[in-house]
Amino acid sequence: MTTLTHSSDTLTRDALAVLQPGFRGTTAPDWLLRRIGEGLTSVGLFGRNITSPAQLTALTAQLRAERDDVLVAIDEEGGDVTRLEVRDGSSFPGNYALGSVDDVDLTRAVARELGSRLAACGVNLNWAPSADVNSDVNNPVIGVRSFGADPALVSRHTAAYVEGLQSAGVAACTKHFPGHGDTAVDSHHALPRIDADFDTLHARELAPFRSAIAAGSKSVMSAHILLSALDPNRPATLSPQIVTGLLREELGFDGLIVTDGIEMQAIASTYGIERGSVLAIAAGVDAICVGGGLADEETVLRLRDALVDAVREGELPEERLADAAARVRALADWTLRVRGASGPGAAVQEGTAPGIGSTGTDIGLVAARRALRVTGTVEPLQEAPYVASFAPVANIAVGDETPWGVAAELTALLPGTETGTYGGENTAAEVLAAAGERRIVAVVRDIHRHAWMAAVLDGILAARPGTAVVEMGVNHAEPTGSPHIATYGAARVCGRAAAEVLTGREA
């Protein structure tokens, strides 16, 4: 048994402080407010918690009425992964589009505007950017969330994104350390394994994280992946060699280390969330992200009690838990100071920045337009077309709530546009029959990863070579169609930019 130097109340407060839980609903439940009063320092928000800028601002104010420095975190990458605009699609293109433009000033400006909108609604910690080098083109979970496959490009844009976001007073959380790009498995479902050698990992995976640290990223998120060259036994989130030895000591990161969702199957199915949380804190992690799936008081109490029990039983050093809690509070203190600061680079005061869906700036649309790559000759649509959208199963990070495609944007420009959504069970003949005499616009997403999609498209193009093809995922397959438009992401503004090209007019 460990002899405790702190009171039971201090230990419990520290255990609550290291949790970043979610909840259900658009107002804070009573149980969450009570736990904030007892020491909980962070709250995570998801799409289910947000309906409008005014509602989100009221929600964060409700949380701050309990604790002024509470960390309000969100998974707002822009592009395909949006929580602010989960029901409409993002006003900002994602990392892949920004990387394709390769203008670090543009990336910095987009991140600053996104940060300003978050800050205006009272959000002060963003679980972004993704610094993963998407070296496996078949990666099922990163893809367009990455700036690209080149470590140097990803590094410079990661740094610019961190700088832009934090200049708006919102702490960045660079993810998924030490790099989730070279995986063919989604860690939401199972434990991915990367067998690249030590030198490759340092030159490729770690390069963007070095840049993020140099740019002052306030936090880093660990990945639930096994890197055999670094630790053959435990995933990164639970590995002292990776979290403490590599990130803290070798790379010199002194900020907050947050886990990816602890309820993801890569951890939960092998260790369980209680054991996984204890091992993560013991390894050197400072905060446990939970709430994407498990979003209730029972989960918070289970994890709190598991941490307290681990200290009491001598499995988790009390000093390690206290240090983790102190880092959480230090970041909370930073956000409080920045929010109250004045002068260049200070956070915009709540309620003054453009809100969700605002037209206060068109930087997102400007970026989406610049990201487009058009192959072939564009003959602008003169009549309402038929839009055939080929929809693969969405990964959990993106979710299936957020609309994507070009149909809505084309309809705004060409009323009467018709659309249909197709999956692996459909045929080219079905699409052609539904289209009738209308010109077809085929919208695909990561066609190189989906043989069924490529086969149906080939059938359509054989019958209708004038079909326009819009690729809204990773642009890896050979361009086909007349024209072929690559948007480098499926954000709403990407669809709008493609619709403008297809019609020869701006929306």
Q: What topology emerges from the helices and strands here?
A:
Elements: H1 8-17, E1 19-20, H2 30-37, E2 42-45, H3 53-66, E3 71-74, H4 95-101, H5 104-120, E4 125-126, H6 151-167, E5 171-177, E6 193-194, H7 198-203, H8 207-214, E7 219-222, E8 226-227, H9 240-250, E9 256-259, H10 265-268, H11 273-283, E10 288-289, H12 297-312, H13 318-339, H14 363-371, E11 373-375, E12 386-390, H15 407-413, E13 418-422, H16 428-435, E14 440-444, H17 451-463, E15 468-471, E16 484-486, H18 492-503
Parallel strand pairs: 1-10, 2-3, 3-4, 4-5, 5-7, 6-8, 7-9, 12-13, 12-14, 14-15, 15-16
Antiparallel strand pairs: 11-16
Helix pairs in contact: 1-12, 1-13, 4-14, 5-6, 6-8, 11-12, 14-18, 15-18, 16-17
Name some characteristics of this structure.
disordered N terminus; 39% helix; single chain; alpha/beta; six-stranded mixed sheet; 507 residues
